[in-house]
Amino acid sequence: MNPPFAVQKIGHAVVNVADLEKSKRFYTEVLGFKVSDVYPDRMMPGGMVFLRCNGDHHCLALIGGAPQPGGAAKTLHHLAFELATLDEVFRARDHLKQHGARIVYEGRRRAGCQVSVEFLDPDGHHLELYWGVDQIGYDGRARPEEEWRQTASLEDAVRIAPPGQDTTLHDAALRARLEAGSDRP
Q1: Most buried residue among 20, 74, 104, 179 by CB atoms closer than 10 A?
Q2: Taking the domains of the chain in order of start, what are their residue ranges?
Q3: Number of Cα atoms under 13 Å in the Cβ half of residue 180
Q4: pLDDT at 185
């Protein structure tokens, strides 16, 4: 059976780290990643650093506060998979619901401004299907925080877009559902 969407690439990984500053230095100074954004502890317990190695806002993010070495095993926070269109994110959400997947978030997060649906696989791994992650240009600047437009639904992500993000749905049936105020498949 083919799903009504196609994963384009593994978009980013988010890992929990014991020492956020030490890990940030390793990834930037040793591996050459660039910092796109940083969340202080008030936005993400332990703090969070978004790193890039190409034009995507982030391909790796680090969350501080994981147990020290010798404690619990290293953990992956989540894996994200890029979809080609915004329409596919809506179809993915519907498909996941139809197959009983536990959806834990949908809408737009903050830094990166991607529109996504987040869910758990059968083993409880946190996965994300997304579209529209911000691109970082030659100047190295990320979108300012006041433009992020976090939402808690895909419908609101379409209605409340950050500047420059085209959230036009191209599928007529999806557009009609949005206009009717329905979020059901």
Answers
A1: 20
A2: 1-185
A3: 10
A4: 47
> What are the CA-CA distances from residue 90 to residues 32, 38, 60, 87 (Å)?
35, 29, 24, 5
Residues 71-115 pLDDT 10s: 555 688 899 999 999 999 999 999 999 988 999 999 999 999 999
Cβ atoms 36, 145 nearer than 8 A: no
Residue listed under structure tokens 């890992």: 15
The class of domain 1-185 in CATH terms is alpha beta
Contacts of 149 (CB under 8 A, 6+ apart): 108, 113, 157, 160, 161, 162
What does DSSP assign to residue 78?
E
Which pair of structure tokens corresponds to residue 29?
A: 């100074």
